[in-house]
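Project outcomes to date are best conveyed with an example. Our students and postdoctoral researchers have been running inverse folding experiments weekly, and each run begins with a structure described purely in tokens. The record below, which covers 509 residues, was selected by the lab manager from last quarter's runs and is presented without edits.
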């Protein structure tokens, strides 16, 4: 216990110390939200990866889908690396950086409002972001708190409260730059931690070959005579596995807290380096998480919840209970690193969106005092400081709301994330990506996709989830491209001169 406590205290001290160190760069809106658009390849790549993979993946997804699909769940990690990281950087990285800087966009709702000349889109997008990031945040809390409870014996409620408070401290102090630096430190812990944990867990089952052999002897749930499916490359249910791959891989392309990383990177050379770094990070972390989860059945059947369903969120903690204290301490740091980085990204995204896209959405002084065609410098500085203060207050507000949900979580971690990702990426992915590449995307088509993504997610929830939130989310994302394309063909096009001026950004280096 002493080892675990010392490791955790050192980690937390470094985390808060980074927040204090970065506070000088968080005085302006540009510095607080984007780190001054001057964040290098390594910090951005690790920020992207650590925001991507949290306790939601390590505890919720790896446990649930590893148990359902066996070793074939490793395809989810491979998809996350190739689609969610590599292709996301290749397709979105450069164009996002150039266009958002050109149109002076600092958030995803700001992008929609400026790119498509619609204040209504800006407001609607900011509300969608704020509402649907909350269940994702609650899922992150739930994942890390389960491991803390196992490793330290601290009650779940106190784990959630302590983690929320620590995240609030360093984000409020240092903004995006503190988050990026901490993400780098936390990412290194994640890389070494996942490798060490996999080796230790497999050693308890006699090594890799022995564990695979034991897994191959287990019968399938629906077909007891079919042995070996959990050790098979395609697993017992390949079609539903595809839905999980699509949701968790393609979803990052439309999530504001992920795409926002491209806004702040320094230049095109950094984007090229970041692409490689981010992909390698995803292969190790995501691939390792799902590979580890694939052996979950070797550790027995998870306990049953009061509603009669299996408690999938207890699978990974159960696999780790027999490890030495030093390794359990490393696991706690691993998941704490992943979760705090994700939480920091989520709360920063939500607070900046509410401040810049709802309260100050006109980008002008609230007093409207303009001198010689420009906002008075003293007044402008005052407004900048006020915006940063409001963002800090909203960070606390957002954390409190998500904390209340986390203390009484309505469902499994994976389902919380499915609802969040399905609505957000279903609404944003298609219009954002096509808005970077296709001049003929119309304002009406963006509205239609917002309605499609949120509507299909809410309809499925209100109907009692006849389709799993995972598959529903995957359909929402892919269907959004069809919606935007068809509606754009039959609705009023944007002014050609306006679009041409926006497209001038791609002619620059």
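After processing, the design step wrote out the following sequence:
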């Amino acid at each position: 216990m002493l080892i675990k406590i010392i490791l955790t205290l050192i980690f937390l001290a470094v985390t808060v110390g980074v927040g204090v160190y970065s506070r000088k760069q968080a005085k302006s809106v540009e510095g607080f939200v984007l780190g001054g658009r001057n964040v290098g390849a390594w910090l951005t790549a690790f920020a992207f990866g650590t925001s991507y993979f949290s306790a939601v993946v390590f505890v919720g997804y790896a446990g649930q889908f590893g148990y359902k699909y066996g070793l074939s769940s490793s395809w989810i990690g491979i998809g996350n690396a190739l689609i969610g990281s590599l292709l996301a950087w290749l397709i979105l990285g450069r164009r996002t950086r150039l266009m958002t800087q050109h149109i002076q966009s600092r958030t995803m709702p700001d992008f929609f409002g400026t790119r498509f000349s619609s204040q209504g889109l800006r407001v609607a997008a900011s509300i969608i972001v704020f509402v649907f990031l909350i269940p994702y945040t609650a899922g992150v809390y739930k994942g890390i708190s389960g491991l803390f409870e196992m490793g330290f014996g601290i009650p779940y409620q106190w784990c959630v409260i302590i983690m929320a408070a620590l995240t609030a401290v360093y984000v409020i102090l240092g903004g995006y730059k503190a988050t990026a630096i901490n993400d780098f430190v936390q990412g290194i812990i994640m890389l070494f931690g996942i490798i060490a944990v996999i080796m230790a867990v497999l050693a308890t089952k006699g090594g890799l070959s022995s564990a695979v052999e034991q897994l191959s002897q287990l019968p399938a749930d629906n077909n007891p005579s079919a042995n070996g499916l959990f050790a098979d490359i395609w697993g017992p249910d390949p079609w539903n596995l595809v839905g999980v791959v699509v949701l968790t891989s393609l979803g990052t392309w439309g999530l504001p807290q992920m795409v926002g990383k491209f806004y702040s990177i320094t230049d095109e050379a950094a984007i090229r380096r970041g692409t490689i770094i981010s992909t390698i990070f995803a292969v190790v972390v995501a691939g390792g998480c799902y590979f580890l989860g694939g052996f979950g059945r070797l550790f027995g059947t998870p306990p049953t919840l009061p509603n009669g369903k299996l408690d999938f969120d207890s699978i990974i903690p159960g696999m780790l209970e027999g490890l030495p204290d030093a390794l359990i301490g490393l696991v706690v740091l691993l998941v704490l690193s992943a979760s705090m980085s994700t939480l920091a990204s989520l709360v920063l995204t939500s607070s900046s969106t509410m401040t810049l896209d709802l309260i100050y959405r006109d980008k002008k002084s609230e007093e409207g005092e303009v001198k010689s065609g420009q906002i008075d410098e003293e007044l402008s500085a005052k407004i900048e400081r006020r915006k940063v203060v409001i963002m800090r207050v909203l960070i606390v507000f957002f954390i409190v709301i998500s904390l209340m949900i986390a203390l009484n979580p309505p469902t499994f971690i994976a389902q919380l994330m499915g609802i969040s990702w399905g609505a957000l990426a279903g609404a944003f992915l298609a219009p954002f990506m096509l808005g970077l590449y296709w001049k003929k995307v119309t304002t009406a088509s963006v509205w239609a996709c917002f309605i499609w993504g949120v509507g299909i997610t809410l309809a499925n929830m209100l109907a009692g989830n006849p389709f799993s939130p995972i598959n529903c989310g995957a359909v929402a994302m892919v269907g959004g491209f069809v919606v935007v394309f068809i509606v754009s063909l039959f609705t009023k096009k944007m002014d050609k001169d306006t679009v041409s001026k926006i497209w001038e950004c791609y002619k620059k280096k």
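The radius of gyration is 22 Å. The mean pLDDT is 82. The training component of this project remains on track.
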